[in-house]
TrEMBL record:
Pfam families assigned to the protein according to its UniProt record, in alphabetical order: ROK (PF00480)
Name under which the protein is recorded: Polyphosphate glucokinase
Gene3D superfamilies xref list: 3.30.420.40
SUPFAM superfamilies in UniProt: Actin-like ATPase domain
Single annotated GO MF: kinase activity
InterPro entries: ATPase_NBD, ROK
Amino acid sequence: MMVDGIIEMTKDWHYDVISMGFPGVIKHGLIQTEPKNLGDGWVGFDFSKAFGKPVKILNDAAMQALGSYEGSGVLLFLGLGTGLGTAIIAEGTILPMELAHLSYKKGTFEDYLGLRGLNKLGPEKWEKHVHSVVERFADAFLPDDIVLGGGNSKLLTTIPQGCRLGNNHLAFDGGFKLWE
């Protein structure tokens, strides 16, 4: 299993705790749903037992949102990658969202903004949908800050109004913040 490989790769590392971003629904530190792109066997998996260390798990989009958060107000995070990750942080409270699977046009938000949408629509139409969805979510959630992250955010030729680009390395900052 993947965990065995990670344990082997990190056997010479020195660490006391683990922060883990996971592409799925997390409640009370436990994975609730199997992720679309990683296969089965994750629901209820005990990572602390497997690694022999304390583990805090957070939705991967929420992890990057936490690393992007500047300490006050409402931040809306959209992760444009294989799928669509979404999270809100309101006055320091993390609210992982599963907006990707809500209806949008003839599918879901993820169908249009995820990698499948990019490949099907092409970059120009995909970018128009990104702008449209950002505007829609901004109207609904009234954020003070909007961060677009994920690998495909770099493909945008124009950044939607009121947004800034995130950086996947900010997920590491989010992981450290989990233990503060």
